[in-house]
Write a structure and sequence with these properties.
Length: about 220
C-alpha cells in the first residue's frame, strides 16, 4: 500500500510509492497503556462540560492546556527527533505536509521538528488573536470558534501520533511514558467527548486510540 500524503493532518491528498518505515514493536507497548498512567481514573468525568460553564470557554481553556502539554512533551524529544532521524513528518505510511492557510498556502513536505516548530508558532498566533480567543470574561467568541479548535487539535493529534509511532521506546527509557500516556488519554477523551477530531484523522494509530479509549 502506498504512502498516504495528508494536507496538514487533515484530508488525504494523493499516494506515493511505499516506504518501509513501520515500527511493529510499538503496538505491543501500547497494550500497557491502561496500567501505565498517572491518576487517570477520573479523566472520563473530568472532560465533561461542567454545569453552568459556557461550551466555548470550556473548549478554549482545554485547547490552550493541551497545546502547552504537547509542547512540553515534545521538548523532551528534541534531541532524538531531528531532521536526520525524522526527515519527513509522518506516521508509518501517513505523511503530514505543513500548510497554515495564511503564510503557507500550498502544503509542503517538512521534517518532523520543522512541522512541530511551525505548528507551535501557528498555534501561538491563533491563541494570541483576541478575535478568536477573547481575553476578557464575557467577550463573545466567533460563531465558528469550534472550527478553529478542531483545526488546532487535529494538528496536535498529529504530533502525538508521531511521538508514539517513532519515539515511544525512547519515552519509556526516559521514564516519561506514564505522563505521556495520561496526557494522551486526557486529550483523546476530550476530543471524542466533543467530536473535535474525526476517526479518519486518527487512522494512523487506530489500534492505539482504541486501546486508550477502551473502558
Amino acid at each position: 500500500m502506498g504512502l498516504l500524503v495528508l494536507n496538514s493532518c487533515n484530508n488525504v491528498q494523493r499516494t506515493l510509492p511505499p516506504k518501509d518505515r513501520t515500527h511493529p514493536q510499538y503496538e505491543s507497548k501500547f497494550r500497557e497503556l491502561d496500567t501505565e498512567t498517572i491518576g487517570s481514573d477520573n479523566l472520563r468525568e473530568a472532560v465533561k462540560l461542567p454545569p453552568g460553564v459556557d461550551i466555548n470557554e470550556w473548549l478554549a481553556m482545554n485547547t490552550v492546556d493541551f497545546c502547552k502539554q504537547i509542547s512540553l512533551l515534545y521538548a523532551t524529544l528534541e534531541e532524538f527527533c531531528t531532521p536526520t532521524t525524522c526527515p519527513i513528518m509522518n506516521v508509518g505510511r501517513y505523511e503530514y505536509r505543513w500548510a497554515d492557510g495564511i503564510t503557507v498556502l500550498e502544503p509542503k513536505m517538512v521534517s518532523a521538528p520543522e512541522y512541530v516548530e511551525c505548528l507551535m508558532n501557528w498555534i501561538e498566533t491563533q491563541i494570541d488573536n483576541e478575535i478568536i480567543f477573547p481575553r476578557e470574561p464575557g467577550e463573545p467568541f466567533p460563531s465558528n470558534f469550534e472550527d478553529f479548535v478542531k483545526r488546532i487539535l487535529r494538528k496536535v493529534f498529529c504530533v502525538y501520533a508521531h511521538i508514539y509511532y517513532y519515539h515511544f521506546i525512547k519515552i519509556v527509557t526516559l521514564n516519561e511514558h506514564a505522563h505521556l500516556n495520561t496526557c494522551f488519554k486526557h486529550f483523546l477523551l476530550f476530543v471524542t467527548e466533543f467530536q473535535l477530531v474525526d476517526e479518519e484523522d486518527m487512522a494512523p494509530v487506530k489500534n492505539l486510540v482504541e486501546t486508550v479509549l477502551k473502558p
